[in-house]
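Annual report, structural modelling task.

Input specification for the zinc ion complex:
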Amino acid sequence: MEQQRFRCAACNKLDRERVAGQRYCGAVKCQRKRKNKWRRERYARDATYRDTAQASTADSCTAWARR
Ligand SMILES: [Zn+2]
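The model returned the following structure:
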């Protein structure tokens, strides 16, 4: 199997993909960036989830059906 290559989203270095859809290389600073981004996105998603859960119950039905 041929390994995919990707360019790190943080330092622009070309690296071999070890995980499908990998965006950051193994450098500590890049991993830290990845974690920070993940945490921020998770927090944003949680906030959105809380808002929509309060806003309507009809929407949660559609969201469930879409899965
Ligand atoms: Zn990097």
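Residues 8, 10-11, 13, 24-25, 27, 30 surround zinc ion (CB under 6 Å).
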